[in-house]
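@channel sequence for tomorrow's demo:
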Amino acid sequence: MLSYAGIKSGQELTPGALNDATQRIVESGLFATVELVPEGSTLVIKVTENPMIDVINFEGNKRIKDEDLSAIIKSKQRTVYSAGLAQADAQAIAETYRMRGRFAATVTPQIIPKGDNRVDLVFEITEGKVTEVERLTFNGNRAFSDRALRQVLETKQAGLLRQVIQRDTYIAERLELDKQLLTDFYNSRGYIDFQVLDASADVVRERDGVFVTFTIQEGQQYRIGSVDAVSEIEGVDIADFANVLKLRPGAVYSPALIDNNVTRLETLAVRKGLNFVRVDPRIVRDSANQTLGVTFALVKGPRIFVERIDIEGNTTTLDEVVRRQFRTAEGDPFSPREIKQASERIRALGYFEDAQVESRPGSTPDQVIVNVDVIEKPTGSLSFGASYSTNSGVGITIGFSEDNFLGRGQALSFDIEAGTDNTNVNFSFAEPAFLGKDLRFGFDAWWNTSDYYDAYYNTSDAGVRLSVGFPISTITRLNFNYSLSQSEITDVSEDSSVILQEEEAMGMLTSSAFGYALNLDTRREGLDPVTAYVMRWDQSYAGIGGDTNFVDSNFYGAVQTKLFQDDVTVRAIAQSGVFTALGDYTSRVTDRYFANGKIRGFERNGIGPRDLAAINQDALGGNYYGVVSLEADFPVGLPEEYGVGGGLFLDVGSVWGLDNNIGTDGVPVDDDMYLRVTTGVIVYWTTPLGPLKFTFSKALQKESYDKTQPFDFSIATSF
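structure tokens (generated this afternoon):
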């Protein structure tokens, strides 16, 4: 007591010293009441001790578990009870609920006397309803609509699925992220003077909803003016660097455009063996013409080396998985841009909740230490699901996948799908750093059977595939593969085409095929943030061993861009395939194309050559197919948070060509190319169960024997 009071015998007391002593004893938290009473030359200290906490309970909490709340509070069992500390704990619990969007939550600490100066501490919690964002509005936006800006934000409005979608929960801290997202959105579209002047949230009286308003100042849109490259380093031929620039006058200014071109120049400098070279983009504003002149200057940077790379926080993932994302090793020249790109590659792995890559001074002034701090997250999943489409009917799926197997960065997956008319079993394994190089090794195995309800025959297919792929540029990848498979056609109806019956008679055939695939994709590394290109070309040759002899060639190309303030997405897609049988081999129905899903508005196996002399007139498929599709996705006027969008499409294509076109009763099958043209409307609906797509089609041009399908329901996919 004397130590808390800080008073010694013989000390002269003033009223101020007496008050200070009282306060010190109160702040100890050990006493419910404290009174200092001078009686002559004697100071009497009268206290009532706080009771000991026997048990701490939480009542009324459903959204947060007891153990999580216990970790928040500072009051502990078998310690002295403090009313002030209990009140602070109540505020901490309420703040936790507020962080989860429950502004109406209240927490009241209560004590229950137990005798012997002991109490139970109970926190009575009223969680209240989630405080939802009832409306998101913008002031000052002229170039982009409210709807377009709402899509940019992490915060969403409450909609039809407000009980499921949690991003409509109001969290004040999320507004800072939203401000940055808005700034990035405008800057990437040339509005370099954009500012968020204010972001306010008005809470309704019931505290279960807020109205969020962003007040912004757009400024003017700037385009690229003059573009130039100069060198301040002796002996460097700037012409080589100017040739790799992909920036043209008239383009809308974007920081990503500048950054991508800086990367091009710095990468070329490294290839030329020019270390410690930095590219300095110098921008000159022309306000009168609303243009920005850009000069890329090659300058000599400081001579700094990487002393070492430290990795922390990876409890599961091996160090080597993180280290191989760096193009820089210990002892190499330090490149801030390479460190930034490495951090992006580490985050893109998908193994970590967060990954921070920073540099700090090393043991000498010319060295730095690169520190990688990561937080692991689960990378495996066990799934049980159901699916439905008008083509395939009901399907059940059981699957297991692990993207970071044993912490080695390997991908492993296994799934079984059983549907109305098919059974598929697939296994896949991939090693992204085969032999310690930037080689991706893959192994796939499958067993598929089809009991077609819309065809009078069944098929089975089983096989394995080995592949190895590597990048040949930042947007291009080359893959080589070998596959060994067996397939057969069974249960062909007596009423089916004689062509199918002859193909069934071939029995089980083995294919031994070598192939390659070239992939180009600008969606992630492209210079244009609005327009993206995808191209895939693959060929496989079967004939070295096995029973089949053919060349199978396929092409897929797509371009996508955004129009009308990014509200409308338009794309053009071209697809084609050519199956060429070699030697005495003739194609079978399991080899040929049907273009299912590629030309919408038709049933599965609904187009292509057909033996009209056969009773059931099964589709035979074709050795060739080609399809061109034009699509547009756009808003339908509903609030964005409802997740409902619309689309239009036009498909033009055909399936044609047979090796054997002599059908039933010797009647030739017409296997010429006849164009099919369909158009239609698509309704997209993003739900917690997945993105759904409803397609309404109309065939504008078709053959009399084609089987149309005006409506289709399936899971939406991207190009």
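heads up for whoever presents: The mean pLDDT is 89.
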